[in-house]
Hints:
Layout: E1 4-5, H1 7-14, H2 19-25, H3 30-39, H4 49-54, E2 73-74, H5 89-92, H6 116-122, E3 148-150, H7 153-172, E4 176-180, E5 183-188, E6 191-207, E7 213-227, E8 233-236, H8 247-322, H9 327-343, H10 359-365
Parallel strand pairs: 3-6
Antiparallel strand pairs: 1-2, 4-5, 5-6, 6-7, 7-8
Amino acid sequence: xxxxxxxxxxxxxxxxxxxxxxCKSYSLTYQEFKSICEKHKIPLPxxxxxMKRKYGKAISKPKLPNMPDADxxxxxxxxxxxxxxxxxxxxxxxxxxDHKIFDLEVPKRIPKNPDPIIxxxxxxxxxLHPVVNNVWNYTKRYDYGRISVTASEKPYxxxxxxxxTFITVMKARGHYFLFCYGNSYVVIEGIEFAIRMRxxxxxxxxxxxxxxxxxxxxxxxxxxxxxxxxxxxxxxxTTSKTLAEKLPLIIKYLEDIAKEKREWxxxxxxxxxxxxxxxxxxxxxEKLQKEEISMxxxxxxxxxxxxxxxxxxxxxxxxxxxxxxxxxxxxxISFGLRKADWLDPLSQKEDELxxxxxxxxxxxxx
Length: 366
């Protein structure tokens, strides 16, 4: 293990090793690592880089920006002495039979240094996604944005505490977040899950003076976490069990579903590749069939012409023997033999008058 790198060496290492690896190998946190990269102007891999690399897809690596008089990057190697309070990401991957994940405590107050996503949610000047020609491009994803939370003041603050822990854990496990205007997504193994939170409510029915029954929704101060856009899943907080206690189940569910979908995508890619190979084979077979049918048709045409030419010659020879030959008859026989030679593909005699005619089509028309 080295603890000192030139700026160029550190840049190459950042594109070879994940942030989790740096936090495990050296005594620094996620935010400290990001600060080092910002200080030395080190471009980091974009969202989706590690998935593309895992599946062998093309990756474009930027050039290291010029930085005159750049200092070397020094890191402290992690040891047992300086790791007493370290919470490795691998521990977070361990889910026991009670579905509990280590180090998932949700604080009662927002930490002093919350995740940048939470900082954005607390900001009075949010970053706005660009609008082109008054149109929002809902296919475009951004690295910045807010997670949708619909709640009154106190539940909203509890939601921020919950989301800060959720975001921190998911990032430590190698996942990341994307945003698109009012939508937010957590991306697990390349699979996007739309996420949002809301305050639960109950319907209150009232009888009006007119005798009609009306209803309204009344907030009850309990939160729910929703994953998925249409047929998604919702985890609801109850008076006996907080949403924080359900966090391990939420993470396990999302990762299990992502794994299933990733496997389905992998199998689907294999199936589509096989189908493409089979389709190409079938297209090649059909192409060969068409070529051979065309060739066979041509041979059949020549065969028909040859037989017709011979039939015509045979008839004219017999005709010449059986009838009294006048000048007109002799001319007919001579004409017929010339046309028989023109029809016959073996003799291929030219006929100036019929130069632009197809012998087979003419024969069919007759």
